[in-house]
Amino acid sequence: MSEESLQEKTSALWEKTQSHFYISSFSKLNRTFSPREITLAFAKEVAHRSTQKKYDVGFRHAMMGLETAWQLSSFYRTKSRWLPIGQMGWYGLCEASQDPVDFKKVLGPPPLSEELNFETLKKVYATQDFQKIFPLVVFLMRNPKDRKKFFAYLMSHVLSDELNMGNKAIYLCKTWHFCEAMKWENYAEIWFPVLHYILNTKPHLESYPIVEVFYNQNWKTILAAIQKDDVVFPKEQFDAFREGIYQDERSQTLEKILRWIQEGQSLKSLFEVIKLSASDIVFQSSFERWVTAIYPLIYVESLESCCSVMDPQDQVKALFMSALLVKKWAILSKPFETPEQIPLKTIDEKNSPQYFLEYHIKHGRVAEALGALDEMIQTQKINEFTLELFAFCACKNDYTVMFAHDLKFAYASLHSYRMSHHPLKEKYLKALTKLLAMQSKNPTLYHSLCNTQRIRLGYFSVDGDFNF
Fold it and tell me: How far apart are CA 367 and CA 372, in angstroms?
């Protein structure tokens, strides 16, 4: 079938306002088209229906949810990768405005050739006029070099903004990775909602002025001392670093990070310990504060993942902003308490810890789930199948439980674990285990998917491939 046929079917799918009709139609699509094709078609539909006239009370998360679903699907070795895509398609449908925008009208005529340069874009960007900026961006981004140049330019503007828990920077990073994964197909539509959100909201600045002053005072020292080689932050000094992030004054935190840079730590190693500190916020906080608890890791992982596309000074500022926002959100997530952990006892339990990990997550038993995870850590049974199991558990819940934030945290945790060489990297999985076990459970859409695929409801750790 043609791309036009798929997009027509996707548009028709967006008129299915009841979940069983949506699932039935989705199940027919995935027999004909690939996950990539359907994700792209969903992205186009979500993008056309995601903008708002006002962003006074937040913004729609469906586009970021879909971008994260695609990232999370990289942990699936089986056909179960359809699960996050199906979940986020339904989220996009439910969150969408009734009428899609007229994208051709939004894009307008091509800019004049003499206007297609970055000097013109900078002047126009200062007006914050979306209608003038968007066409220039779309036509400039046809050139791969200009894409990176524009991303770095835009990041230098949104890095300072703490509005909605730093979502501008997160959204920008997610969109960049999604376009790279999709080889920049349909990039104009994909960039439409993120730019509309960035340009139509007033920035909230709090930590950045402190970061900027500190950087301007020390930039020569910082850039001269930064190590390019990969190093590992000392395990025995992690607790002191974390407590400094949590408790010191902001200026003290920046001074300590500067000293670590001078002593040979790289940006990568410092991002790592900030992420580990962010994971401990989730591990030690109560579920009532889940929003402020999960955002630190999502934010820091997003910034770190795009450092290679940022200007050098913004890489350092991103590190400083990460430390200060983790500090801020840690305060908002207190009080902290180390959760109880109940170890596995019987031989049967110890022989199949992955099953009991999934079982206890499903039934909301935090202490037992952490005990099962600890058994897997001690016996070195954490592997790619385990990461897929976590991804599967994160995608079973409907969007109404955490509005795709659980998917974002799951990806940040799993990707950080996969890429880490730090001896404390299990902290990412412990935080994820606690969050997945604590959250409310509503697997309605998951059950509907299983029914349409004629799949017996069971445990992923037992059956492996659910054949979505």
Answer: 9
